[in-house]
Amino acid sequence: MDVIGYLGSGFAVALQPFNLMMALFGVFIGTAVGMLPGIGPVNGIVVLIPLTYALHLPPESVLIMFAGIYYGSQYGNSISAILLNVPGTSAAVVTALEGHAMTLKGQAGPALAMSAIASFFGGTVSVIALMLFAPLLAQWAIRFGPAEYFALMIFAFSTLSSLSGSNLFKGLIATIIGLMLATVGLDPISAVDRYTFGQLKLLDGLDFVVVVIGFFAINEILRLSREIGSVHKLSTELGRVMITLRDFWNSFWTMVRGSLIGFFVGVLPGAGGTIASFVAYTTEKRLIDREGTFGKGDIRGVASPESANNAAANGAMIPLLTLGVPGSETTAVMLGALLGMNIIPGPLFIHNNPTLFWSLVASMYIGNILLLILNLPLVGMFVRILRVPRWFLMPAVVAISFVAVYAVNNSPFDILLMAGFGVLGFLMRINGFPLASVILGLVLGPLMENNLRRALSISNGDWTVLWSSPIAIGLWVLAIASLFLPLILHRVTPEGVTVPTDDDANVE
Amino acid sequence: MNRRSDRIIGVLLLLFAIWYGYTALHLRTTLLTDPIGPKFFPLFLATLMGLLSFYLIFKPDPDPEWPSTDEWVRIVLITLTFIGYAYLMNPLGFIVATTLEMIALSLIFRGPLWPAIISSFVFTLALYGLFEIALDLSLPAGQLMKMIGLG
Q: What is the DSSP letter of A353?
């Protein structure tokens, strides 16, 4: 079957009323959490994971919803960036720069409209690219043995550690903490219990949901409790949320470049929307900022990062699904959720789950159209969400988190664990340890150990099996090379600019 | 510029790695199931962690901006409410415990008293309705509710 045939079957699934509803729900939640400063797509997803398990939702519906939250948040994050100068997520840092300058000039409406249109543009271009590229990758995905999987995971850890934080060593430490957390529980091969301290509840290992809700919901509450009293002045005078045809054509090539840059940055394992929007913006600045209007409210400066971060969100699905290598907190959590449903992202993912993959692609076309509607005519409604006071929003997030944790296995012990991980996550984030790496370690730890032990069982304890195939050697080389990538990136960025770290949940 | 935080964290991680490795060494292995067994992976992690902790001790980053005393008070208070909630959830039941938790947090976030009480109660009821009735996931009704005949 060709692409059109597959896509048709994908639409058949994505257009089922229930899946349409999930897509709408996903992009709506995505816009809302993306917009709210301090809350990001990762927070929305973690509290919904237990619900999807408890209700036994089919995997395609879950993936459609979670992906919707992820790319939907890339639409929403620009709203608060433009109106409040507070980016909803770090991927909108650059948008805030240019978009808020437009708001100050009384052009909030056109800025919001440009951002929605550029997001749609980037989203759509990248879905087309995703549709064409991912199956190609899947074609040469030859069967991976345990040794290759082990090398692939080393590669996942090294790319995420080197790209997601400011300090490579802290990224590696965070990964090892995650791997250590993963060793808690009964060892599946020898049935020896490890690090359970006699607690029966820990025999099954630490519950992924409890850890991520602690890390990403409770941690945020603790962090935001520091900011009490800082009030942002909300400009409600939106004006007409529309751009002129001239603005559109002026920004057209900017959006094309932004989308392509965003997509390819997103495809890089370990990179995400923040780096994408940053690279796209600096490229535009060099290419077309002849009158020096960038930074002073140039509409093209909104179009560029917004098309890029949306394209990156869709591009990020490629390493996530075809390699199992996430590039951000959100995609790391999505990986965990997929594994929890026994769906194993990896080289054989598209081959084994064609319906899942193609209904996701189809839902992205639909989701982007829904988002355009939500973000153009209905943007005024979303802006009202920004007025919900924090003293209500934060307790509400906590209450939802409690329900989510409680839904897992009705145990107050889990609430204590969640609080503990919240404090741990809070301390780690203050000190610059990337939480995405911990999550990846926790999620991949059992798989990594099992593959290592299976590989060595097959080879009767001969360690050279780990680097005996060309694919394994290639992955080892890439893994080591990626550790040096931050050094190179550091060299090529112009003076006086710092590349923000790709941290979906918040911005300091 | 102080660089104490990373040094302290480095030392703590080193101690943790030693404890973690020591525990792994003393795992009771019954029969040999595979060439490396359940001890190897934890020992490997402990070694790596030990080595990396030296990096933090000898090349620490500048200290981050730690919370002020005021901020610590709030952070500790919030954490205490979570611990309290874990212990009160079963005796008080979801509705009472969650309403109390939300009120406490609203006040810590400096919300006005009466709106905080009302919004907490209404939101808790809505959550309860959604999960218990619409989604059929059971939340504890609690001893208190049973005593007054509502559970």
A: -
- Pull the structure tokens for residue A407: 């839904």
Interior angle at CA A309, CA A494 and CA A490, nearest 5: 25
- Residue B21 belongs to some domain of the structure: yes
Q: Domain limits at B43?
A: 4-58
- Chain-chain contact of B89 with A413 (C-beta, under 8 angstroms): no
Same domain, B37 and B73: no
If asked whether residues B43 and B108 sit together in one domain, one would say: no
CA dihedral of residues B54, A170, A175, B46 (deg, nearest 10): 10
Of A173, A221, A225, the CB nearest to B52: A173
Q: Is the same domain home to B54 and B87?
A: no
Q: Report the C-alpha gap between B16 and B49 in whole angstroms.
A: 9
- Host H or E run for residue A194: strand A193-194
| A81: nearest Cα among A49, A136, A40 | A40
* Inter-chain residue contact A189 with B33, CB threshold 8 Å: yes
> Per-residue pLDDT tens for A55-111?
889 999 999 999 999 999 988 889 988 888 888 788 888 898 888 888 888 888 899
Backbone φ, ψ for residue B26 (5° rounding): -95, 15
Domain residue ranges of chain A, discontinuous segments joined by +: 3-492
Q: Answer yes or no: is B63 within a domain.
A: no
The answer to whether the CB atoms of A399 and B6 lie below 8 A apart is no
Distance in Å, alpha carbon of B33 to nearest chain A alpha carbon? 6
For testing the chain B interface, which of A47, A51, A170, A173 should be mutated: the one with the most B CBs within 10 Å?
A173
Question: Is B75 in Cβ contact with A190 (below 8 Å)?
Answer: no
Same domain, B75 and B132: yes
Tell me the ipTM for this assembly: 0.91
Give tens-digit pLDDT for A176-201. 999 999 999 988 788 788 888 878 88
Query: How many domains would you assign to chain B?
Result: 2
Q: Identify whether residues B137 and B82 lie together within a single domain.
A: yes
Option in A51, A395, A418 nearest B102 (CB)? A395
Identify the DSSP state of B148: T
